[in-house]
Amino acid sequence: MLTDDQDEYSFATLAVRAGQQRTSEGEQSEPIFPTSSFVFENAAQAAARFAGEEKGNIYSRFTNPTVRTFEQRLAALEGGECCVATSSGMAAILATCLSLLKAGDHIVSSENIFGTTRVLFNKYLARFGVETTFVPLIHLEAWQNALRPNTRLLFLETPSNPLNEVADIAQLSSLAQAHHCLLVVDNCFCTPALQRPLELGADIIIHSATKYLDGQGRCVGGAVVGDGQQVGEEVFGFLRTAGPTMSPFNAWVFLKGLETLQVRMEAMSQRAQALAEWLEAKPEVSKVYYAGLPSHPQHALAARQQAGFGGLVAFELEGGKAAAWTLIDSVKFISITANLGDAKTTITHPATTTHGRLTVEERAAAGISDGLVRISVGLESLEDIKRDLQRGFDGISKR
Ligand SMILES: *Cc1c(COP(=O)(O)O)cnc(C)c1O
User: Fold this and answer.
1) One domain for residues 267 and 361
2) Any ligand 1 atom below 6 A from CB of 262
3) Which GO terms describe its biological process (predicted)?
């Protein structure tokens, strides 16, 4: 359903309908196919499937109908030709790099990316002869200066986490094109509901489906979206060989997550905007990092490039680490966890958690101060979220 005539439908419709193929049972909701292998009608069909002469399922490390439905739906939402699902967001990045790079190739990456991605580049890919240069996300000149003849791939997350810096995807795409390298965008924080990097010239989209695509904190998974050659042949070929594929159950959970993605992203963006404005007016808060605020340096770019500003809000407390911990320890229902993208609002202290392993200098360079707090705004009532945080602010002023 809605695979051949996708262009005729809007995002909201595709999010609910794309990729579904009803079986003869006439089910309304998509079925889960928990099967490791598939049977053939006869020996000739088996031979034809294995030879690649006939399309069809063989084994769930290669293809699975539930996983395929998720892949087709996400591809439709990103406006991509092809999507392959992976066992995690990290597996999506690994599969992209190992299938499209070789020893001697060079990556230029924005510096404030997901910590584990940095470890993947620095510790593991480096061992296989792929070197990475890290540059500040928002400085186009730094990207330009970092390019080498062997640069094959530009990698970035925009907006960045937790400081919500925003890069100009179209500009970076021109740079990538001029140097014949691939532009890979980790679209975890905006999701296609708020930002469609392929339309801005990116070549490949990475997802940690674990975050907003699921949106309810249930499963770990990931995806790569792009064209039929790089993603459909190369990344898919690596995955079916190396094995970090998505389970049908997880695919089903993510598939259902996609159906509510747009309404969730809109609701979270609205709450985050109101919360950022509320925080900006607090005397205990010295700075709020949210691209929806006119005070944000890339506010205009974000407004142009994104359909919303997303659910992550970071802010700095005058009182440093003591104030940050007091605020965090005062909340009653907001979850103290580094995870994000959940219907449940979460709060975290980056300096001692996600960025705790960095040296003091590295943290300073990344802009992670001791007074920084990050909130991933969920779907609870905004008034309740504010009330929960106000308890913390009362605690800070009493100290
Ligand atoms: C969480 C995250 C990842 C890794 O995803 P997993 O599903 O945890 O493997 C990659 N990129 C970003 C931006 C993330 O937030």
Assistant:
1) yes
2) no
3) 'de novo' L-methionine biosynthetic process; homocysteine biosynthetic process; transsulfuration
> Do 185 and 275 share a domain, yes or no?
no
**What letter does residue 367 receive in the DSSP assignment?**
T
309 found inside a domain: yes
Is 30 a pocket residue for ligand 1 (Cβ < 6 Å)?
A: no
Token duo for residue 354: 């996600």
Local confidence band at 140 (pLDDT 50, 70, 90 cut-offs): very high
Residue ending a domain, choose from 206, 229, 259: 259
Please indicate, yes or no, whether residues 141 and 236 belong to a single structural domain of this protein: yes
Cβ 342 under 6 angstroms from ligand 1: no
- How many domains does one find in the chain? 2
Mean pLDDT, residues 375-398 taken together? 94
Instruction: Give the end of a domain, one of 259, 279, 299.
Output: 259
Residue recorded with tokens 């809605």: 2
> How far away, in angstroms, is 104 Cα from ligand 1 center?
26
- Centre a 10 Å sphere on the Cβ of residue 88 and count the other Cβ atoms it contains: 19
Could you report the per-residue pLDDT of 319-331, keeping only the tens digit for each? 999 999 999 999 9
The Cα 202–Cα 172 span in angstroms is 8
Q: Do residues 232 and 287 both lie within one domain?
A: no
Q: What is the mean pLDDT of residues 108-122?
A: 94
- Rounded to the nearest angstrom, the distance between the alpha carbon of 89 and the centre of ligand 1 is 5
pLDDT score recorded for residue 15: 97
pLDDT over 70 for what percent of the chain? 99
- Closest ligand 1 atom to residue 90 Cα is 9
pLDDT score at 357: 85
- Same domain (yes/no): 216, 98: yes
CATH of the domain at 292: 3.90.1150.10
Residue nearest to ligand 1 atom 12, measured at CA: 114
**Terminus-to-terminus CA distance in the chain, angstroms?**
60
pTM summary value: 0.96
